[in-house]
């Protein structure tokens, strides 16, 4: 018979695909993690992982065990919340995965407000320009720029956001005139590295016919800093521009994009009041902050 502690180790290895990564999550050394996996395999009389130099890969038996272990994990979390008693506040640790633009220019002020009202809450923001894997529990919830088409998840539309061409005042003073989209041919354009665009919703320059920008980054923050330094013209999030002194929108009547942020969560997490309360506060806070940030813009 397997115990919950060993199943918890099993889930960490399944999600991290290595003993060392699982150990960091669990605060155990890799050797201990390995012994616990071996003990679970012996108890179940099943081989749960295939070991290789590249890591630990689930076997068919291990894959079947994951769903049952996650159900137990959810039940244990619900039990812990029930034992803690009713509470209006939010406590514990919650990890959010988000694209770096959202994580840098929108989430900090929203999360700071939520934590200020919930002293027992610990929030981790993981800012990476890529898609997060909820099944591996890389995060408790994810902010995405497109709604997932499959998977056992809850997808909630948070808010629309807008993007426009932007440039620094310094660049506009020194560069050729920029009065129409056709004038862009005489300007340096900043954008994403084409083969590192992780979601089709981020292919902003396709609408402008720009396939290979002369200056590019996989990071929204780097792109905005290039614009701030007068390196050229780029597509910028309206909500990020209040943080970029000396940068303004240009050609707003000729070029405008609307995208959306979605909050993606595990389907089982609808049973966890703590996660439900945090998700509601996050969505409300992001909507309010978006209205405030997009309301203070300077055009050129």
UniProtKB/TrEMBL annotation:
<keyword id="KW-0805">Transcription regulation</keyword>
<protein>
    <submittedName>
        <fullName>LysR family transcriptional regulator</fullName>
    </submittedName>
</protein>
<feature type="domain" description="HTH lysR-type">
    <location>
        <begin position="1"/>
        <end position="59"/>
    </location>
</feature>
<dbReference type="Pfam" id="PF03466">
    <property type="entry name" value="LysR_substrate"/>
</dbReference>
<dbReference type="InterPro" id="IPR005119">
    <property type="entry name" value="LysR_subst-bd"/>
</dbReference>
<keyword id="KW-0238">DNA-binding</keyword>
<dbReference type="Pfam" id="PF00126">
    <property type="entry name" value="HTH_1"/>
</dbReference>
<comment type="similarity">
    <text>Belongs to the LysR transcriptional regulatory family.</text>
</comment>
<dbReference type="InterPro" id="IPR000847">
    <property type="entry name" value="LysR_HTH_N"/>
</dbReference>
<dbReference type="InterPro" id="IPR058163">
    <property type="entry name" value="LysR-type_TF_proteobact-type"/>
</dbReference>
<dbReference type="InterPro" id="IPR036388">
    <property type="entry name" value="WH-like_DNA-bd_sf"/>
</dbReference>
<dbReference type="InterPro" id="IPR036390">
    <property type="entry name" value="WH_DNA-bd_sf"/>
</dbReference>
<keyword id="KW-0804">Transcription</keyword>
